[in-house]
């Protein structure tokens, strides 16, 4: 018998989720990470001052609070405190105005004035069936929904707001801007069915399980997952770049938390030509360009309420965002990109020191764009917070083209590992009933390039692990995520089960 049952390449949230499931099944699991630290998109580090930490990639985690995997894993029970801001997200507009999505649906509706009842009718029914909505969207999308009503609610809303009819449902400027800012998380053409689905999912969660930040930074989630893996015998190899699948030949199952481009490189010509061509046709989405700031004081928003939000969308009106995001999807850079911003210390005061606090910001740009985003992002912030530039003590900017150097999964700066189109939501990365299983025996894909797609939810890793358990180890009594995973001890297959 080989010394390793399972080799996992990549320790992003999906690689770690797969490791949790497989190690708990009693298998010998080894995880390989090219970087010196684990986590992928879940890394937190000091960039400018040893006492101030910055989230290198993801910062806010609505999916970690809502996904079936993390509901079962129970982050709070493992020492990860999810902090919920009073205002889940804010969307400043010109003239000192701002649209605010409070955790309270009723308070949000009150502040939306004439559009309040419309917002309530849009989000209220989704909230009533929130768990079923989340479980549907975060499934492998290959089975009938267990709650057809939830599916109908989601589909009917996505159909309207995925077309030009959506914004026309509102009378004011605030509500459509609020919703379109969430749709822009899909990072692609607006409007579209895929972006509308994202808007319905994240939009209703803002009033439900919320858009929380982990106390101390996103790295705490990776740490909790890694601790569980090592507690069940898993072993990590950091600073180890795996260049070819041949390096993992002793493992009975190999799970790859990599992009389709990465799978092609690792396979080295071993894949059947038809499957390889399908991977080559896989489309990557627009890029993200990142700026981390160290600032001397809270951001001087024209509307002070914006400073209480966990997340801020800087995109202007609905019409402006439609133009910006659609241009990006076509590869055309705009002078005023959509910017996603987080001031972590507004929710987690411990992230700041006197006169020093982190600010996190992403700009949506065309895939592979080499432009330094600092000036663009600073200008976008100053449009709604005049004087922000005077508070900047230091900054670090990363162009979209450079993000692939940091993480090869981010092809051209696409942090979602693949364009979020309707087709690629279902046929991700290729049209197969089991999208996690590759044609190579024992080799599985577990990254965001598989259903259900991007975000820190762990479900791609979980579902890939189930496929590996079935096909490589004959284990069909897989973890039921409706139960506490701490009770799931399978034992070694064929030995002490």
Residue ranges: pLDDT <50 for 5 or more in a row?
A: 480-497
The description of the largest β-sheet is:
7 strands, mixed
- The spatial strand order of the largest sheet comes to 7-6-12-13-14-11-15
Distance between the termini: 18 Å
How does the helix and strand content classify structurally? alpha/beta
Question: How would you describe the shape?
Answer: globular
pLDDT averaged over residues: 94
Number of helices: 17
Count the E strands. 16
Helix share, percent? 25-40%
Strand content: 15-25%
What is the radius of gyration?
22 Å
Annotation keywords:
5-stranded parallel beta sheet; alpha/beta; 34% helix; 497 residues
Task: Write a structural description.
The protein is α/β, with parallel strands linked by helices and 497 residues long. The chain is 34% helix and 16% strand. It is built from 17 helices and 16 strands. The chain has helices at 13-24, 62-66, 68-73, 105-111, 116-128, 130-137, 148-161, 174-183, 193-205, 219-231, 260-267, 273-281, 318-329, 374-384, 400-406, 422-426, 459-473; strands at residues 6-9, 29-33, 44-49, 52-55, 82-83, 87-93, 97-102, 213-214, 235-238, 253-256, 287-295, 309-314, 339-342, 357-365, 392-398, 443-445. It has a 7-stranded mixed sheet, sandwiched between helices. It has a 5-stranded parallel sheet with strand order 9-2-1-10-16, covered by helices on one side. A hairpin with a 3-residue loop joins strand 6 and strand 7. Helix 1 runs parallel beside helix 10 (219-231) and helix 1 (13-24) crosses helix 17. The chain is globular and about 65 Å long. Mean pLDDT is 94; it is low at 480-497.
């Amino acid at each position: 018998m080989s010394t390793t049952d399972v080799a996992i390449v990549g320790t992003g949230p999906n690689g770690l989720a797969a490791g949790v499931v497989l190690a708990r099944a009693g298998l010998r699991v080894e995880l390989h990470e090219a970087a010196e630290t684990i986590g992928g998109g879940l890394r937190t580090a000091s960039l400018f001052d040893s006492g101030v930490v910055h989230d290198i990639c993801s910062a806010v985690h609505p999916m970690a609070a809502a996904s079936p995997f993390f509901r079962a894993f129970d982050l709070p029970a493992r020492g990860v405190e999810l902090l919920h801001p009073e205002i889940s997200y804010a969307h400043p507009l010109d003239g000192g105005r701002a649209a605010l999505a409070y955790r309270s649906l009723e308070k949000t509706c009150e502040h939306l004035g004439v559009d309040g009842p419309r917002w309530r009718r849009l989000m209220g029914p989704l909230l009533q069936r929130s768990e079923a909505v989340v479980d549907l969207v975060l499934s492998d999308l290959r089975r009938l929904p267990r709650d057809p009503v939830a599916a109908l609610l989601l589909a009917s809303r996505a159909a309207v707001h995925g077309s030009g009819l959506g914004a026309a449902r509102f009378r004011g400027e605030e509500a459509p801007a609020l919703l379109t800012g969430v749709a822009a998380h899909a990072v692609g053409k607006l409007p579209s069915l895929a972006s509308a689905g994202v808007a319905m999912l994240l939009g209703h969660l803002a009033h439900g399980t919320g858009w929380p930040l982990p106390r101390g930074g996103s790295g705490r989630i990776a740490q909790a997952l890694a601790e569980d893996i090592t507690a069940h015998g898993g072993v990590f190899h950091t600073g180890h770049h795996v260049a070819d699948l041949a390096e993992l030949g002793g493992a009975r199952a190999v799970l790859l938390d990599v992009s389709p481009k990465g799978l092609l490189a690792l396979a080295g010509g071993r894949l059947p030509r038809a499957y390889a061509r399908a991977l080559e046709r896989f489309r990557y989405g627009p890029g993200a360009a990142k700026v981390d700031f160290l600032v001397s004081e809270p951001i001087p928003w024209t509307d002070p309420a914006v400073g209480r939000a966990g997340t801020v969308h800087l995109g202007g009106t609905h019409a402006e965002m439609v133009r910006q995001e659609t241009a990006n999807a076509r590869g055309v850079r705009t002078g005023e990109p959509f910017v996603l911003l987080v001031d972590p210390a507004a929710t987690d005061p411990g992230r700041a020191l006197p006169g020093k606090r982190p600010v996190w910001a992403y700009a949506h740009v065309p895939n592979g764009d080499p432009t330094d985003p600092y000036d663009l992002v600073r200008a976008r912030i100053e449009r709604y917070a005049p004087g922000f530039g005077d508070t900047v003590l230091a900054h670090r900017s990363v162009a979209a083209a450079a993000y692939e150097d940091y993480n090869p999964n981010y092809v051209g700066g696409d942090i979602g590992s693949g364009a979020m189109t309707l087709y690629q939501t279902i046929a991700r990365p290729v049209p197969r009933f089991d999208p996690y299983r590759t044609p190579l025996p024992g080799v599985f894909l577990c990254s965001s390039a598989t259903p259900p797609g991007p975000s820190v939810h762990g479900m791609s890793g979980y579902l890939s692990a189930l496929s590996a358990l079935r096909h490589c180890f004959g284990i069909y009594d897989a973890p039921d995520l409706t139960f506490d995973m701490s009770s799931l001890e399978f034992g070694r297959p064929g030995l002490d089960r």
